[in-house]
């Protein structure tokens, strides 16, 4: 059984009976379609849409050029219903640097691929991730967890071809691609830009790569204030108007981007230790996660807050490395959602020239002094402080006394 095919040579030696290829019309996928045709491997292409309103016409046209059927599946609704809420509950930032993006979409793409592959009777699911991309394990790990009997083809792990080699091969069959040097991976939550001049973190950023966010120098001089209301840890209302999560993300991307909020530059660890530089735009993610953190701080007990921070970091690390559908990943996600049940209330924020300032937080479940009011004050008046101080200081007093070292 060919469970993993990690090079073009392996695919030629042990060809799948019928491959389902995750395909969005890009250079790598189109080149792989050409190679699969040359190997006489039966293939069906699958374009998984997350946030795009219409099917990708380029993907359809190029698949047809190789005589390949293409399936188009829109999973935007599942993204907002299942995958994005888990990231909000976890305040999911990669190594506390920037909001995660493909970490959320790759498991959903893999699940969709497994469903379609099972329907079509495919024995292998293919993708084009390289050894420099964490998506290799996110896709492969998710596919294997959901369908252990379906093989995974990731030929560009072992077959490392340059962009120019792929372009030249496709030009030979009449297919051309723009000469753009940047790789862009976009979904409703994040827009990630890498490669080209961005590969080195030592280079100054090229302003032209940004699409969602303004530079702070051109952002409006007047600040904007917004209020977000949460229920059970998820945002449900903006400025007094109930709104679906997908619509809220779209609106906050526009508002935050206009005011220069949500730009990131950082290094992501690759599977083999080398770091990959990437630029990220995520206005809505920045705003929602900040408000969620503030609300959690107001509502959670110290023990709950410490525990949810630990679990959130562990969940984020787990799913970044392909464990979305693992028992650990699913258990941690359920725990975070459960800890978020009391998180209800409104957070008011100011957006101004790249800054995001918390103005106020109001929660019916808040543990802050002014909300608890007179009852708490009266209870504290009856409290005896001597036993508390005696117990709290006992270890240090014991050590100072010389009775223990």
What can you tell me about this protein's structure?
It is a single chain. This protein has 405 residues and is an alpha/beta fold. Helix 2 crosses helix 7, helix 5 (102-120) packs across helix 6 (135-146) and helix 10 (302-320) runs antiparallel to helix 11. Among the domains are: 4-179, Rossmann fold (3-Layer(aba) Sandwich), CATH 3.40.50.620; 373-400, no CATH class. It is elongated and about 85 Å long. The chain starts with a strand and ends in a 5-residue tail after the last helix. The mean pLDDT is 92. Strand 14 and strand 15 (275-281) form a beta hairpin. The protein has helices at residues 8-13, 27-38, 57-65, 76-89, 102-120, 135-146, 163-171, 245-258, 283-299, 302-320, 327-339, 369-381, 385-400, and strands spanning 4-5, 19-22, 43-49, 69-74, 93-94, 98-99, 124-126, 151-153, 183-186, 191-194, 224-231, 234-238, 241-242, 263-269, 275-281, 345-352, 355-362. The protein has 13 helices and 17 strands. Pathway: Amino-acid biosynthesis; L-arginine biosynthesis; L-arginine from L-ornithine and carbamoyl phosphate: step 2/3.
**Radius of gyration over alpha carbons?**
25 Å
Output the CATH homologous superfamily of the domain at 4-179.
HUPs
CATH topology annotation of the domain at 4-179: Rossmann fold
Distance between the termini: 63 Å
CATH architecture field of the domain at 4-179: 3-Layer(aba) Sandwich
Range of helix content:
40-55%
What is the H-and-E element order? EHEHEHEHEEHEHEHEEEEEHEEHHHEEHH
Assembly type of the chains comes to single chain
Gross morphology is: elongated
């Amino acid at each position: 059984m060919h469970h993993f095919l990690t090079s073009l040579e392996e695919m030629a030696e042990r060809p799948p009976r019928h491959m389902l290829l995750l395909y969005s019309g890009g250079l790598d996928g189109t080149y792989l379609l050409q190679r699969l045709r040359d190997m006489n491997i039966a293939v069906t292409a699958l374009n998984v849409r997350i946030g795009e309103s219409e099917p990708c016409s380029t993907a359809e046209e190029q698949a047809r050029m190789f005589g390949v059927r293409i399936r188009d599946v829109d999973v935007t609704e599942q993204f907002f219903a299942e995958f994005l809420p888990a990231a909000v509950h976890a305040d999911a930032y990669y190594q506390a640097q920037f909001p995660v993006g493909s970490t959320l979409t790759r498991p959903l793409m893999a699940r969709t691929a497994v469903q379609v592959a099972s329907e079509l009777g495919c024995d292998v699911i293919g993708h084009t991730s390289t050894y420099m991309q964490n998506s290799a394990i996110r896709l492969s790990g998710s596919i294997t967890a959901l369908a252990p009997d379906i093989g995974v083809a990731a030929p560009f792990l072992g077959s490392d071809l340059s962009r120019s080699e792929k372009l030249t091969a496709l030009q030979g069959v009449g297919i051309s691609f723009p000469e753009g040097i940047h790789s862009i991976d976009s979904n409703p939550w994040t827009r990630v830009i890498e490669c080209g001049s961005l590969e080195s973190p030592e280079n100054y950023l090229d302003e032209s790569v940004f699409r969602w966010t303004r530079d702070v120098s051109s952002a409006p001089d007047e600040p904007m204030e917004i209020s977000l209301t949460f229920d059970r840890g998820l945002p449900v209302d903006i400025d007094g108007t109930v709104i679906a999560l997908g619509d809220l993300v779209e609106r906050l991307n526009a508002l935050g981007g206009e005011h220069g909020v949500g730009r990131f530059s950082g290094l992501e660890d690759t599977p083999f230790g080398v770091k990959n530089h990437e630029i990220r735009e995520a206005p809505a993610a920045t705003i929602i996660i900040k408000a969620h953190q503030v609300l959690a701080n107001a509502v959670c007990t110290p023990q709950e807050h410490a525990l949810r921070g630990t679990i959130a970091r562990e969940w984020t690390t787990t799913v970044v490395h392909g464990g979305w559908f693992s028992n650990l990943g699913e258990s941690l996600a359920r725990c975070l959602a459960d800890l978020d049940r009391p998180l209800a209330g409104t957070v008011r924020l100011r957006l101004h020239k790249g800054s995001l300032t918390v103005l106020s937080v109001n929660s019916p479940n808040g543990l802050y002094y002014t909300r608890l009011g007179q009852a708490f004050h009266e209870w504290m008046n009856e409290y005896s402080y001597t036993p508390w101080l005696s117990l709290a200081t006992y270890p240090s007093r014991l050590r100072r006394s010389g009775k223990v070292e």
